[in-house]
Amino acid sequence: MYFQINKNIERYVSFNLDELKIFNSLLEYSVVPKKTILLHEGEICKFEAFVIKGCVRKYYIDTNGLEVILQFAIENAWISDISFSIYEKNPSRVYIETLEDCQLFLFNPESKEELFSKAPKFERAFRILMQRSLAATQDRLFNTISKTATEKYVEFLEQYPALPQRVVQHYIASYLGISPEFLSKIRKKMAK
Amino acid sequence: MYFQINKNIERYVSFNLDELKIFNSLLEYSVVPKKTILLHEGEICKFEAFVIKGCVRKYYIDTNGLEVILQFAIENAWISDISFSIYEKNPSRVYIETLEDCQLFLFNPESKEELFSKAPKFERAFRILMQRSLAATQDRLFNTISKTATEKYVEFLEQYPALPQRVVQHYIASYLGISPEFLSKIRKKMAK
DNA sequence: TTTATTTCTTGTCCTAGTTCAATGCAATTG
DNA sequence: CAATTGCATTGAACTAGGACAAGAAATAAA
């Protein structure tokens, strides 16, 4: 049960069995049906979620009432609104919602503090996780500014080859920052 | 000399005098003339820079050879390509360049490790700094996707009211992800 | 299996923003 | 101070992508 998350956390820092045991004891296992909103706009995000099985999206609603998807998280990915919420205690501007029935590990700030005090090496692992998420966001900004809609879609397919079979198409358009109609037209053109 | 950086690092975590002394002893003070490239694409970024005085930009060159500015840093801001370079030892895709004569503190990864081992509380402060930079990047992504060019420019003016007097206008266009001509037209319309 | 609901596609028209000159202006440089 | 270079402005023509509407397909519900 803990195999996936331990493998994930050990990607950049190694831990011994005792350390992993502490880590695992602080995780909350949770089964969540699809279309459950884990975080509403205006709430304070009190968790970081690791996806064991399923698919989750993070999105905000823009000034025109349009949903914009910031992140998809599938198996072995972390998702949270850490940047705004956790340490600064600001209400979040985003929603986090399951798209499929999910098995998750939830990790809350108190547990995180406890982990860091009992096994400080985890500070480093979580700092690296955050750096990776910063890198991913910067990369996405890069693409959003510099690439055409078609290029963005092609890159998306490379990065998430399994997602088109798992989520509806207009969510992908929303992630890419283009209209669903235009994505449809891109696909038509690419099919040739 | 250390007043500004100490005030900055204490924004979210407080330190005693001994801790600050250790921190300050590990910083490298550096005076850099304008138009100096501190980091080239392809290099590994071996510093985090804190701006005491001056103005710095971080940018990449897109596939059409066009410069896109990711960040401006003025007094009391940090700038680095931490996300890609420092811990993962990947070559950077960005350039970091001074736009004015600058006074900087440079902080390198070895010093950072030393700091963390001598005064572990700094781990937390730097984790929060990184979260803030993640939040800022996410915010920028948000704006880039959801706002019109005019809205982006107005927000930019609110966030960096002093910058238009300090950097050439097409750099601002490059930051906003629009063409310099269009920014000029926006300004004309706004002047009315 | 029939109905209802959601999603995807396609076409037409429209607009925000780009590209490409051309011109004037400010700022360096010799 | 003249000359060169870089920068901002303006206009005209163009294009990527959006908005709207209507139909077709697929999914879910009953």
Helical proportion of chain A? 40-55%
Rg of chain A is 18 Å
The run of helices and strands of chain A is HHEEEEEEEEHHHHH
What shape does the CA trace of chain A take? elongated
Instruction: Write down the CATH topology of the largest domain in chain A.
Output: Jelly Rolls
Q: Number of helix segments of chain A?
A: 7
**Any guess at the CATH architecture of the largest domain in chain A?**
Sandwich
Biggest interface reads: A-B, 36 and 36 residues
CATH superfamily of the largest domain in chain A: Jelly Rolls
CATH level-1 class of the largest domain in chain A = Mainly Beta
| Oligomer type | homodimer
Write up what this structure looks like.
Chains A, B: Keywords: Kinase, Transferase. Chains A, B: It holds the Pfam family cNMP_binding. The structure is a homodimer. Chain A contains seven helices and eight strands. The termini of chain A are far apart. Chain A has helices at about 5-10, 15-25, 110-120, 120-145, 150-160, 170-175, 180-190, and strands spanning about 30, 35-40, 50-55, 55-60, 65-75, 80, 95-100, 100-105. In chain A, strand 4 (about 55-60) and strand 5 form a beta hairpin. Chain A is elongated. Helices cover about 45% and strands about 20% of the residues of chain A. The relative contact order of chain A is 0.16. In chain A, helix 6 (about 170-175) crosses helix 7. The model of chain A has no long low-confidence stretch (mean pLDDT about 90). In chain A, the strands form two sheets. Chain A has a four-stranded antiparallel β-sheet with strand order 1-8-3-6. In chain A, strands 2-7-4-5 form a four-stranded antiparallel β-sheet. Chain A has about 190 residues and is an alpha+beta fold. Chain A has two domains: about 5-145, Jelly Rolls; about 145-190. The longest helix of chain A has 26 residues, at about 120-145. The interface of A and B includes residues 70, 120, 131 and 141 of A. Chain A binds a DNA duplex (30 and 30 nucleotides) through helix 7.
